[in-house]
Amino acid sequence: MPTPTRPPSSPKKPSSARKPMLFGLVVVLAAGLLGFVSYRATAPDASAADAPAEATTAAPDSDVYRELADLARRDAGDKLAQGRTDAPVVLIEYADFKCGYCGKFARDTEPELIKKYVDDGTLRIEWRNFPIFGKESEAAARASWAAGQQDRFWAFHEAAYAEDAKEQGFGKDRLRDLARQAGVKDLDRFVEDTDSPAAAEAVSADQEQAYGIGATSTPSFLINGRPLAGAQPMAVFTEAIEAAAAEEANVGSAGDPAK
């Protein structure tokens, strides 16, 4: 997947809103780890199977993973999430609606994960808008947030990631059409929300979080704090989710974090 450089003009989130532990040593380690994952996932000689296996086992410090796991909001009111707030495993996805690999994951893998793990209470999925491909990426991200304000984020997500959807672009008329397809009832409110400061702030916060932990490509994931990059096969996500669930079960039975 493409790995564009962070735009120099990207807005910076106020320091008061940042988690203290995520800026300093934790961010340095996490950025290096996610940067390595992104490199392995996009390197010409890296196979899809090899990259995530190394990424999920190369642990520089378990404290880093715990700090990254704390990025899970577990907020019942989060419009861009699905699954139980107390699920043992949280998958955070940093993605862009103009990213072809993100679309592949959304169409081929995510529905299986929902059916297999979200529906039985094992997994919670939390979306983070990570627009890195220009103005239309930003517009689509704000529109997805706006659809979420009317509880239609996931329907909008499905419409925007339909086969060949991104080739039609994400201009204003197209975004309104996608909202209509997604069942957004108040389209005038949708347009207002898309252009609102609240939408811009929400997208910027997600984007800065992704940059802050060293994400350099889309899609990038954290599974209970463990980084994974790219639209990997279902088997890779299955292994990572089940390992995380087993670790949480071990933590619960032992009373202390698994070593």
Structure description:
The protein is an alpha+beta fold. Strands 1-3-2-4-5 form a five-stranded mixed sheet. Helices cover 50% and strands 9% of the residues. The protein is globular, with a radius of gyration of 18 Å. The protein has a single domain, classed as 3-Layer(aba) Sandwich (Glutaredoxin). The longest helix has 21 residues.
Overall, the morphology is globular
Helical content class: 40-55%
Q: What structural class do the secondary elements suggest? A: alpha+beta
**Could you give me the name of the CATH homologous superfamily?**
Glutaredoxin
The tally of domains stands at: 1
Using the coordinates above, name the CATH class: Alpha Beta
Q: How big a fraction of the residues is strand? A: 5-15%
SSE order, one letter for each helix or strand? HHHEEHEHHHHHEEH
What's the helix and strand layout?
Layout: H1 25-42, H2 50-57, H3 62-69, E1 81-82, E2 89-95, H4 100-118, E3 123-129, H5 135-148, H6 153-160, H7 172-181, H8 187-194, H9 197-212, E4 220-223, E5 226-229, H10 234-254
Parallel strand pairs: 2-3
Antiparallel strand pairs: 1-3, 2-4, 4-5
Helix pairs in contact: 1-2, 1-3, 5-6, 5-7, 5-8, 5-9
Question: Brief description of this entry?
Answer:
The chain has 259 residues and is of the alpha+beta class.
Spell out the key features of this protein.
five-stranded mixed beta sheet, globular
